[in-house]
Amino acid sequence: MSRSMVSRTTSLCMLAGVLTGCASTSKQDAAALEDQNRNLTAQLNKARSDAENERRARAELDQRLRSAMRDVDDLRGQVSQRPTEPAPAGWTPVAGGGMIAIEENILFQPGKVTLRQEARKTLDAIVSTLEGEYAKKDIMVFGHTDDQPIKKSGWDDNWQLSTERSLAVVRHLREQGVAPDRLVAAGVGENRPRVTNNSEPNRLANRRVEIFAIDAAPRSGRQK
């Protein structure tokens, strides 16, 4: 075989090898693209599934929220339509019962927390109402002061003074037979005035104790 024929044969073999290699590479690339396409399709399907699940979860949450809002609106409607009970003489009707306010000068000396003697008579008359018309009510006692800072009485602040006064009233009510599990004492200080504290008559009006007799609240540990 001549050299030229050998050369041509060699070139043809090399070309065939290149073409075979190209064909093999093309098949590998196609397979890789198919794998990539399958992976992307799977990811797309999963994303669509996740989005649908999230949409359903959000729709369910929205439905629950709307239901809860309807329940709240219904409850507010029931409260607003709840009739106010008639109150005994001297008492102010409030939702679930009644309230009576007693001025500071009837109950205490200025800056003091010991009940005046005449205050006991006033509270004893209230006890008869608490054990009569309001026998099934909880009793909440709130002490109130004016906005003048404590200077000479020795209390830390008006909150402490108002709390001690409400405790004095609660203890007297308990001594007169009101069940202790019905009684709640709280001090408000100067934070819930009747009127603006801009004059001595107004400050006097704000210094008081309020006794609420209202529907019993559910709670644990109540004595049977």
Write the layout of secondary structure elements.
Blueprint: H1 3-81, E1 92-94, E2 97-103, H2 104-107, H3 117-131, E3 137-144, H4 158-175, E4 183-189, H5 200-206, E5 208-215
Parallel strand pairs: 3-4
Antiparallel strand pairs: 1-2, 2-5, 3-5
Question: Concise description?
Answer:
The chain is α+β, with helices and mostly antiparallel strands and 224 residues long. It has helices at 3-81, 104-107, 117-131, 158-175, 200-206, and strands at residues 92-94, 97-103, 137-144, 183-189, 208-215.
The span between the termini is 122 Å
| Total of domains | 2
Number of helices: 5
Q: Give the CATH topology of the largest domain.
A: 60s Ribosomal Protein L30, Chain: A
Give the uncertain stretches in residue-range form.
none
Which term fits the overall shape?
elongated
Could you report the average pLDDT, rounded to the nearest whole number? 82
Examine the secondary-structure arrangement and name the CATH architecture of the largest domain. 2-Layer Sandwich
Instruction: Tell me the fraction of residues in β-strands, as a range.
Output: 5-15%
In the sheet with the most strands, the strands line up as 1-2-5-3-4
Structural class from helices and strands? alpha+beta
CATH homologous superfamily of the largest domain?
Answer: OmpA-like domain
What's the alpha carbon Rg, rounded to whole Å?
42 Å
Percent helix: 40-55%
Text of the CATH class of the largest domain: Alpha Beta
For the secondary structure, the number of strands is: 5
